[in-house]
Design goal:
Structural class: alpha+beta
Order of helices and strands: EHHEEHHEEHHEEHHHEEHHEH
Radius of gyration: 23 Å
Helix content: 55-70%
Mean pLDDT: 85
Shape: globular
Number of helices: 12
Strand order of the largest sheet: 1-2-3-4-5-6-7-8-9-10
Distance between the termini: 26 Å
Length: 355
């Protein structure tokens, strides 16, 4: 779809990359990261982000990523330095306690800086994204609300999820124009219920199967006693596999339904709306099949898995413009939306938060 000054009533997202093309980038990233003992991984991350941004289009215009590897590397070196300092001082219990408390207080700040950095380094149609979330809001959504949800035995978890999505969506903007998200709590409880149904149902089915083929009491006794008996360890491994099969898919289902709720209630400039039609079971199938294909090919199909998932998400995301996008781009360009080119190296921390 080519951009024009005419009104576009519907613009689907597209991912135009290919597994073959990305494989070349991925294998070079992997080899150089190994040869440089991990140093090149900072540039590898930038190349990967740039590839996926530049190959994602909406309304005929693509996204872009503008960070450089040195910014990412500086952030990682600071984190490594912090780990070294912690290791050297960990013999003093009081110092360890102070450092742990300091880290707990620092995490929301780092999250905000990371979100701000990633927004500034991303653009659409040459318009930079922005993030305006505050440290105080981050403390509430990542510490206070999860703590209150835990006190409710996690029956209030959907409220915590909605608060987090409000913080992420409402904090972002495209140039000077802000995104806005709000939703009733019902869809979040439906997402939780769907995840619980999967988790509980699969647990019952798997335990029913396991009870006929595994010696569960012996496995649990071996776990408590620390036995190294081979057969018991196999049973313990299968028990962990049961938990993984139940909870990992439940998390994917929950994420898919939350994503739909967020996009379907998201606006830009209060006139441009979005829609997500991701199927939880289809996304689950893509995730599970990707996992097994990557494992069976010893990781060589990793690029294919990434491209496959990106294309599915793009194909099921739509923008409904509330006016001419050319007018919107012209207004943003005239307002000087491109946030300054000078960014602090400290903003290169690689903390990822999924929206």
């Amino acid at each position: 779809m080519q951009a024009s000054s005419s009104y576009i009533s519907k613009a689907g997202f597209e991912f135009r990359g290919s597994a073959r093309e990305f494989f070349g980038i991925w294998i070079v990233n992997l080899l150089l990261s190994i040869l440089t003992l991990g140093i090149y991984s900072a540039w590898a991350k930038v190349r990967t982000k740039k590839y996926f941004h530049q190959n994602t289009y909406v309304a005929g215009r693509n996204f872009d990523y503008h960070a450089n590897g040195f910014q990412i590397l500086i952030g990682r070196l600071i984190i490594i330095a912090g780990i070294v300092v912690y290791t050297l001082l960990s013999t003093n219990a009081l110092v360890v306690l102070v450092m742990v408390l300091g880290l707990i207080a620092l995490i929301p700040y780092l999250l905000v800086r990371s979100l701000r950095f990633n927004a500034r380094m991303s653009s659409w149609s040459n318009i930079r994204f922005t993030f305006h979330g505050s440290f105080g809001s981050a403390v509430k959504v990542y510490y206070l609300y999860p703590f209150l949800a835990a006190l409710s035995l996690y029956t209030a978890w959907p409220f915590a999820t909605r608060a987090t999505q409000r913080f992420l969506a409402n904090g972002h903007g495209l140039g000077t124009t802000r995104f806005s998200f709000d939703s009733a709590i019902g869809p979040f409880y439906k997402a939780l219920l769907a995840a619980l149904v999967w988790g509980a149902g699969s647990m019952m089915i798997l335990f029913a199967f396991a009870s006929t083929s595994l010696d569960i009491p012996r496995a649990l006794q071996a776990l408590e006693a620390g036995s190294e008996e081979a057969a018991a360890l196999v049973d313990i491994g299968l028990l962990y596999l049961i938990v993984l099969v139940a909870f990992a898919p439940a998390a994917i289902i929950y994420h898919a339904l939350v994503r739909n709720t967020v996009y379907n209630n998201l606006t830009l400039d209060e006139r441009h709306t979005f829609h997500s039609s991701v199927s939880p079971l289809k996304l689950l199938w893509i995730s599970v099949s990707n996992f097994f294909v990557v494992v069976l090919t010893l990781g060589l199909m990793m690029p294919w898995a990434h491209v496959r998932r990106a294309r599915y998400l793009a194909d099921h995301t739509t923008l409904y413009p509330g006016g001419s996008l050319d007018d919107f781009v012209d207004e943003e360009t005239a307002s000087g939306n491109a946030v300054g080119d000078a960014y602090g190296d400290l903003e290169g921390f690689g903390i990822e938060v999924a929206v």
